[in-house]
Amino acid sequence: MPVKKETIRKSTVKKDASTTKSATKPVLKDFLLEVEKKAYDLYQERLKSLSPFDNIADWFQAEKEIKKKYNL
């Protein structure tokens, strides 16, 4: 009795969409370091302009800008 050979079609292999998107997302540690640096830069700008200090607002603004950068 002849043995039927199994063939593997290349089209059956699908790429996971989450793996392709995660390549563009930063690692959490890197993301937080980038936010920290941006928040510090915003703080420095506030010092130069003699604006009232608001560390929390600086952090949220930095987070917003970095999220926009990575389309998060």
Task: Give short descriptive properties of this protein.
mainly alpha, single chain, 72 residues
Assess the beta-strand content as a share of residues: under 5%
- Percent helix range: 55-70%
What is the mean predicted local confidence, pLDDT? 80
Radius of gyration: 24 Å
List the total number of helices. 3
Kindly describe this structure.
With 72 residues, this protein is mostly helical. It has a domain of 47 residues. Helices cover 60% and strands 0% of the residues. It is built from three helices and no strands. α2 crosses α3. The radius of gyration is 24 Å and the shape is rod-shaped. About 11% of the residues have low confidence.
In brief, what are we looking at here?
The protein has helices at residues 17-22, 28-49, 55-69.
Topology, please?
Blueprint: H1 17-22, H2 28-49, H3 55-69
